[in-house]
Amino acid sequence: MTSQDVRKQFLDFFASKGHLIVPSAPIVLKDDPTLMFNNSGMAQFKEYFLGNATPKSNRIADTQKCLRVSGKHNDLEDVGFDTYHHTMFEMLGNWSFGDYFKKEAINWAWELLTEVYKIPKENLYVSVFEGNPEENVPIDQEAWDIWKGLIDEDRIILGNKKDNFWEMGDQGPCGPCSEIHVDLRSEEEKALVSGKSLVNNDHPQVVEIWNNVFMEFNRKADGSLEKLPAQHVDTGMGFERLCMALQGKTSNYDTDVFTPLIEKVEQITGLKYTSNEVLNSSEEQNKTNIAIRVVVDHVRAVAFAIADGQLPSNTGAGYVIRRILRRAIRYGFTFLNTKEPFINQLVAVLANQMGEFFPEIKSQQQLVTNVIREEEASFLRTLDQGLQLLENVVTETKGSTVSGVKAFELYDTFGFPIDLTALILREKGFELDEAGFNTAMQAQKARSRAASEVSTEDWSVLIPGNVETFVGYDQKESDVKITRIRKVDSKKDGILYQIVLDNTPFYPEGGGQVGDKGTLVSANETIEIIDTKKENNLILHFAKKLPENVNASFIAKVNQDLRNLSSRNHSATHLMHQALRSILGTHVEQKGSLVNPTYLRFDFSHFAKMTETELQQVEDFVNARIQEQLPLIERRNIPFAQAVQEGAMALFGEKYGDEVRAIKFGESMELCGGIHVKNTAEIWYFKIVSEGAVAAGIRRIEAITSDAVKAHFASYENTLNEVKIALKNPQDILKAVHSMQEENTKLAKQIEALMKDKVKNLKASLIAEIQEINGIQFLAKQVDLNPEGAKDLAYELGNLGKNLFLVLATADEEKPMLTCYVSKELVAHKNLNAGQVVRELGKFIQGGGGGQPFFATAGGKNVAGIQNALEKAVEFVK
Q1: How far apart are CA 542 and CA 530, in angstroms?
Q2: Ordered DSSP codes for 350-407
Q3: At what angle are helices 3-16 and 239-246 packed, to 10 degrees?
Q4: Record-annotated residues binding Zn(2+) (predicted)?
Q5: Where residue 74 falls among pLDDT bands split at 50, 70, 90?
Q6: DSSP SS3 for 593
Q7: Selected residue with higher pLDDT from 545 and 381
Q8: Averaged pLDDT, 55-63
Q9: Quick one: what percent of the chain has pLDDT higher than 90?
Q10: Residue 128, Cα to own-chain centre: how many angstroms?
Q11: What is the distance of C-alpha 853 from the center of its chain?
Q12: Residue 1 has pLDDT above 60, yes or no
């Protein structure tokens, strides 16, 4: 049975049980501040479990792309070393929102596994929650009794809280769960050891494949449990593990989920992968196997994240994606001998393999390939740089143990992998101070945790029920009541209060647009709202204090000035998107945006730097639409399919409902939930301020409109007036500037000629000062030259013989510089190295530097240290 058949049979089965089949949500979460990535099948349904929204069906089934590489659920370091952990995986799931419960969930799970997939019953074990007296939660007798009618009692296992009580997080919906485990061992192994004893003991062939969670409690901030108003079912079955069981394999990587990717790696590297059935592989082969598993697993996670709109970067979710890819690159570099980019070649295989069910990987194939290729090339350059830096660390090490702190600096600053550091050191006969590295690592993690630590209290509900509505498209003020409040204490922001209103004109951050600011005004006080965000379908208004009377009536007032500026930038973004597609081509797609009152930022797919002409054409296009005074045509609650059919642009990586909001200005039409101007004339003017690269095939434009453009033009006018004054008010400013440039060029040539004469004169006088020490011609001297002159002088003196060791010091413009020249013969035969010399002497001038073994320089900030540096130089030749 192919993996495509496995997926289809699951969805068809639950469709036959009255479930609505929904597509996978994006792997990257953009509107949930509590999660970076979808890390479980239930993540996209949190608002339903919390009662903050109503699902379109009480029964839903899907397969969800999941990523577990950060926070509580972090499998990254296990990936590659075993046969069943992954960064990205598919979670097959069926869901009941207040509809069926344990009886149906358990019976359908058993029916699907044993009658449809035909897994032998004697290979299955199930677990049931044993209860927890401390929390007054009894044994899940109902689940036990249901299973007792389906399976022998000796195959039912009681599980503890760790294994059989599932929680969304430290707070929120939770409940007992019933897992299903499959024993994939041979008959001989089963006869020797019972599979029951191996359940939940990390045995690679006795693995959990399905978890049925029965959500019936809510975990409060104080740790206590309360009953949910409705009972829900949340199930998840690991697709890759299920394929392993159904295809008769003992490793996920031996299934057709991974074999096409593995075969491509074998073709590229010329190395062979051995399946899990091949026992007693050599140590070298095991390293190859691990590296190939790392590569084929990680490319899936990275490719789907990029396709869903998350580019690798140095912060947040982008940093996680970059870290996953770099782990794959370094395993290839170290164990597969790949010194050139190659992982990008796997994207075509992945698109061909999964594009039918996940069309985003097919449509974004070229972009994903380009981004991964550029990331590979960049990190391979980093590895080369790191190898040189590690060589310097080794050279400076006294003894045979390299400082863990130094190794951590390489890891933290340059991204050089610690295991690669340890491997290279062993090859050179050195040891790594692992304890020192771990101490530095833990200190950094502690700092990071402290900086991001957040304590969230339970909601205090003032008005029960899901009564909140958003009125911000039509109103900037509204009469409101507070429905719930809670306190949030974080190291970053201090104590803040989240306030939910029965209706609100405040737009919550989303779709690239920042959240509104404003006030809540009652008869007695005014509360400042400093931000607005959305979480689990609730609009949260952030304030530094609560009203004295939270039950009072308020007027919610949006800061109209900030709202107007943001809306002008947002509408300009739509017009610019249209302009880019018109001028550059329809390959242009939005890949990210930021809209705030100050400026707009727009990331888009394009293969080359935009020319000045193209940028001007985009500006002219947008400003023409502004001059046309196009009215806003807004269509709310239009069916998604109809909107797309009528030409509305839908963005990859965004989660759209069945009904959407379409925004149209002239020929520009996009699906968008943001705030816009009523007429393009309100934008006033559009000006691009920068264009550059974000990643391979991704460009970024930053632009301004309205008041920011006025300020921009005023700044340019002020600068021009200051230039005129500095030039003594010439009639033709441009002519005066050109004249000054010509004069400067002439003077520079004269100075260069004078400097050459000065170097020649100095050369003649310094020859007499050269001393012979241990057969080496030695000179350490401060000279009245600029750094370039010192370099010329060093090479001039270097031409005199084959055994010169020279250190020149300069203090041009009070900036100390050391220049070291060592004859190549001395480098070869005396083991002298100019780079090491300037690094050591640079300490005296409070600086550092480097270069080649025969020529290097070091800059610093302590002119007074020059004399000490020159006096110390002689020790290198004694």
Answers
A1: 6
A2: HHHHHTTT-HHHHHTHHHHHHHHHHHHHHHHHHHHHHHHHHHHHHHH--SSEE-HHHH
A3: 110
A4: 570, 574, 672, 676
A5: low
A6: strand
A7: 545
A8: 93
A9: 63
A10: 37
A11: 39
A12: yes
Residue pLDDT, tens place only, 275-312:
876 656 688 888 899 999 999 999 999 999 999 888 88
Asked if 41 contacts 277 with a C-beta cutoff of 8 angstroms, the reply is no
Is residue 676 annotated as involved in ligand binding? yes
CB atoms within 10 A of CB 4: 15
Instruction: Kindly give the interhelix angle for 346-354 and 283-307, rounded to the nearest 10 degrees.
Output: 60
829 marked ligand binding residue: no
H or E element at residue 227:
strand 225-238
Q: Catalogue the E-assigned strands of 506-654.
A: 518-521, 526-535, 538-543, 554-558, 590-595, 600-605, 633-639
Token representation of residue 731 = 């009639």
With tokens 């559009």, the residue in question is 686
Instruction: Find out whether 82 and 497 touch, Cβ atoms under 8 Å.
Output: no
Token pair of 664 as six digits: 């149209």
Which pairing describes strands 526-535 and 538-543: parallel, antiparallel, or unpaired?
A: antiparallel
pLDDT in tens, 362-375: 989 999 999 999 99
- The torsion defined by the Cα of 596, 537, 224 and 139, in degrees rounded to 10, comes to -140
From 786, 741, 779, select the one nearest 763 (Cα to Cα).
779
Collapsed DSSP state (helix, strand, coil) of residue 416: coil
Length of the chain (residues): 878
Pairing state of beta strands 668-671 and 659-665?
antiparallel
Q: Rounded to whole angstroms, how far apart are CA atoms 877 and 830?
A: 9
Q: Give dist(CA 682, CA 571) in Å, integer.
A: 10
Q: Which amino acid is at 464?
A: P
Q: Which residues contact 720 (CB under 8 A, 6 or more apart)?
A: 733
Q: Kindly report the pTM of this predicted structure.
A: 0.76
Distance between CA atoms of residues 781 and 767, nearest Å: 12
More reliable by pLDDT, 571 or 277: 571
Whether the per-residue pLDDT at 147 is higher than 90: the answer is yes
174 assigned to a ligand binding site = no
Angle CA 528–530–533, to nearest 5 = 125
**Which pLDDT belongs to residue 653?**
66
Is 521 exposed, middle or buried, given 0-12, 13-18 or 19+ CB atoms closer than 10 A?
A: middle
Distance separating alpha carbons of residues 464 and 51, to the nearest angstrom: 11
43 vs 682 pLDDT, higher one = 682
pLDDT > 80? residue 461: yes
Q: Mean pLDDT across the stretch 727-734?
A: 88
List Cα–Cα distances, 179 to 1, 182, 183, 193, 841, in angstroms: 24, 10, 13, 21, 66
Give 71's pLDDT tier (boundaries 50, 70, 90). Answer: very low
CB count, 10 Å around CB of 507?
A: 24
Other beta carbons within 10 angstroms of residue 764's beta carbon come to 9
**CA–CA–CA angle 104, 110, 115 (5° rounding):** 120
Nearest Cα to 321, choosing from 601, 27, 680, 21?
27
Q: How many CA atoms, within 13 angstroms, populate the side-chain half-sphere of residue 313?
A: 13
Residue 72: what are its φ and ψ, rounded to 5°?
A: -60, -45
Virtual torsion, Cα 839, 845, 849, 854, nearest 10 deg? -60
| Residue 57 · residue 33 · CB < 8 Å | no
Q: Render pLDDT for 331-348 as a digit per residue (tens, 0 to 9).
A: 999 899 999 999 999 999
User: Quick one: average pLDDT of 630-647?
Assistant: 92
Whose tokens are 């010194």? That residue is 339
Phi, psi for 126 (deg, rounded to 5): -130, 155
DSSP state of 680: G
Task: Please tell me the number of Cα atoms within 13 Å of 266 on its side-chain side.
Answer: 12
Averaged over 773-777, what is the pLDDT? 91
User: Averaged over 834-850, what is the pLDDT?
Assistant: 91
Which of 805, 822, 812, 807 has its CA nearest to residue 755? 812
- Report the chain's mean pLDDT, rounded to a whole number: 90
Measured CA to CA, the distance from residue 652 to residue 360 in angstroms comes to: 7
Q: If you ran DSSP here, which 8-state letter would residue 254 be given?
A: G
